[in-house]
Each structure stands twice: as structure tokens, then as C-alpha cells.
Specification:
Blueprint: E1 26-30, E2 36-38, H1 43-47, H2 63-66, H3 69-76, E3 83-85, H4 92-105, H5 107-110, E4 115-117, H6 126-129, E5 132-135, H7 144-163, H8 170-173, E6 196-199, E7 212-215, H9 218-227, E8 228-230, H10 237-243, E9 253-255, H11 265-278, E10 284-286, H12 299-308, E11 311-313, E12 320-323
Parallel strand pairs: 3-4, 3-9, 4-8, 9-10
Antiparallel strand pairs: 1-2, 1-6, 5-7, 10-12, 11-12
Helix pairs in contact: 3-4, 10-11, 11-12
Bound molecules: S-adenosylmethionine.
Length: 324
């Protein structure tokens, strides 16, 4: 599907939920077109029509939900099911799922769960398509590899306990050797798009200048090339899931992580209504932390509309909803 983006959207890693606590956060973007961003109830007006200045999401973002998904998909859809990742940002959601599925299900089984990812700004997929991931440290001048390795270690432990599978070491998937900065142009990376940003608080000082780039192992990249489709054209969720949607007879798996707050109130209503009307029983909806936080201007309304459409929270997996 090809559409023109209706809006440009503002995206950022949201440090807000870092310690599990919603925190109002204000940041000033220090860039060519300096723009003040406000996260809070008024931020939507600020984001609408703003130029995309920086964009960040991360590998295994909200891993406490992600690590459980391959096992859930295997149990619910043993024959396989496409995984539709909307608002897929720089491709990190898709890579995370692909890597985890490979670890939990094995390379062959994982192919039963093709991943189709899209975004309003598909050029952001470029790095992921090249098998390159940017890692940010948890704090300024920290070691992004070590931070991810710690996260991976936790997931490895959980998966071993629950699924009885060893997902192996992080270094089996990603080459621990960072890509030398002088090679960056070779990868046509869009570092220039990442301005520095600093919070007014003192706990979020990590900026993209500390980003390090790593390569997927060639065998992992080869597998993900088969499993993941990065939609080349802009896909607007309202077009895809409301205006062009048809009722589906079979369950679907839909990711809409950390993007509902970018919709206007009428769009949010249209979307929840369409999700209620068009998704077959047994469908899964994967949401993000911002859908639970006060980034969402009317969280209670969002969840009550979802429930009106027959969606219920998964009993065990936070942020996953199941269509009755
Ligand atoms: C904060 S990022 C979240 C990315 C990723 N899902 C995650 O959880 O890290 C929000 C993404 O939503 C995309 N987006 C915003 N409005 C959209 C729309 N109407 N349709 C599709 N994507 C949209 C933005 O381009 C951005 O990549």
C-alpha cells in the first residue's frame, strides 16, 4: 500500500518509563531547527506538523513483554502467523522479534512467523535493513554493548526458565566489535539526523553522540532477510487499519507499540473501533509502555474503547491484548 504521510511525526526514546514511573519530561532539541518538545498533555499539538529531527528506538525495547512473545506465538499459532509491526520506527521492533524468535523457536520454525514492518517514514529502516543496529548506553559515556548484554542476560534467564530453551549469547547474534566511526559513511547512516538532546533532569544525559553501531552476524542477517519485510512505502496505521481495512476471518498479530499517543483523539477512536470490528477472535495486539503512561492523553478512554471492541488484557503478559 502506498500513501503519502499525512503528518510528520516526532519520535524519541522516551526515558519516561525508565524506572517504571511515569515522569513528565521536558527536553529542548538542540538542532538545526530548534524546537521545544513537551511531553505531557499538550505535546500532541507540538508534534503535529513538526519536522522529524531525531528518531530513536532501541533493540529489545520493553524486553519484559518481548521475551514472552515467541513462546506465546508458538502456543497460540503453532502453524505460524504473520506478525504485523506498524509504526516500526527504525526497524528495532522487527529485528528484536526476529532475533528472539530465532533464539526461542530455532531458525527454521521462526520462518513460520514472517514479520512485516512499516512506518510513516520507511527510510528510517535503512540501517536495520543493512543489518546494523545503533546502541545507546544507559548513561552518558557508558558502554552500550555491556548494557545490552545485561538486558540480554535477563531475557536469556527468563526464556530458559519458562520455555526451557537457551537463546545463546548476545554475541551469537551481534558482533561485539563496534563499527569504526570512519566506516559510517559507507553505511549511509543518518547520524546527522540525530541532534544532541539533553533533559533538564540529571538522569537522562545519554545522547546519540554516544551511540555505537554494531553488525548482525551474517547468518542472523541472512535469516532475518528472509523473515522480515520492511515495507518500502509509508504506511499510515489509520489508512491501513481503518480506511483500507476489511474484517479478517483469521486472527492477526498486530504491533502498535508506543505510537497511540501520536494519534489525534478522533483517530484514536476510529482505530479502536476498527480493531474491534475487523480483528478475528484470538487476534493479538501488542502495545507499548507509553500506551500505559500519561503520554497517552486519555488512557482510560483508550482502554475502555478497546474493551468495548472485545479486547482483553492478556492474563500474563503486560501490554499484550487478546481479542475475545
Ligand atoms: C515512538 S516511535 C515507536 C517506535 C516503536 N514501535 C517502539 O516502540 O520503539 C513512534 C513511531 O510511530 C510512527 N508513527 C507516528 N504516527 C504514525 C501513523 N499515523 N502511522 C504509522 N506510523 C506512525 C513514527 O514515525 C515513529 O516511528
Amino acid at each position: 500500500m502506498t500513501i503519502s504521510p499525512r503528518t510528520t511525526a516526532y519520535t524519541t526514546a522516551l526515558p519516561t518509563m525508565r524506572f517504571g514511573m511515569p515522569v513528565r519530561h521536558e527536553a529542548r532539541v538542540d538542532a538545526r531547527d530548534s524546537v521545544e518538545i513537551r511531553f505531557g498533555n499538550t505535546r500532541l499539538e507540538t508534534m503535529r506538523g513538526s519536522q522529524l529531527l531525531f528518531h530513536h528506538t532501541e533493540l529489545f525495547r520493553e524486553m519484559e513483554t518481548l521475551w514472552q512473545l515467541p513462546g506465546l506465538l508458538k502456543n497460540k499459532f503453532p502453524q505460524g502467523v504473520p506478525v504485523e509491526i506498524y509504526a516500526g520506527s527504525n526497524g528495532a521492533d522487527a529485528l528484536s522479534m526476529g532475533i528472539l524468535m530465532r533464539g526461542v523457536l530455532g531458525a527454521q520454525q521462526a520462518q513460520r512467523y514472517p514479520i512485516i514492518t512499516s512506518d510513516l517514514m520507511p527510510d528510517l529502516f535503512e540501517r536495520s535493513q543493512q543489518g546494523i543496529v545503533g546502541l545507546l548506553p544507559n548513561k552518558a559515556e557508558g558502554n552500550p554493548w555491556e548494557d545490552l548484554r545485561t538486558k540480554w542476560g535477563t531475557m536469556r534467564l527468563y526464556v530458559r526458565q519458562r520455555d526451557g530453551v537457551d537463546i545463546g549469547a548476545l554475541s551469537d547474534c551481534l558482533d561485539p566489535q563496534p563499527i569504526a566511526p570512519e566506516l559510517y559513511p559507507e553505511f549511509r547512516l543518518k547520524h546527522s539526523r540525530h541532534p544532541r538532546y539533553k533533559s533538564q533532569g540529571n538522569w537522562w544525559t545519554s545522547t546519540s553522540e554516544y551511540e555505537q553501531l554494531y553488525r548482525l552476524r551474517p547468518e542472523v542477517k541472512a535469516q532475518l532477510d528472509r523473515q522480515i519485510v520492511f515495507a518500502p512505502d509509508p504506511v499510515d496505521v489509520i489508512q491501513a487499519l481503518v480506511h483500507q481495512a476489511k474484517p479478517s476471518a483469521t486472527p492477526r498479530v498486530i504491533f502498535l507499540r508506543n505510537m497511540i499517543y501520536m494519534l489525534s483523539m478522533p483517530e484514536m477512536r476510529q482505530l479502536t473501533q476498527a480493531l474491534g470490528e475487523n480483528m478475528a477472535s484470538g487476534s493479538l495486539l501488542v502495545l507499548g509502555a507509553t500506551e500505559q503512561s500519561n503520554h497517552l492523553y486519555d488512557r482510560d478512554l483508550f482502554y475502555s474503547l478497546l474493551k468495548d471492541g472485545g479486547w482483553r488484557p492478556h492474563p500474563d503478559i503486560d501490554r499484550v491484548w487478546v481479542k475475545e
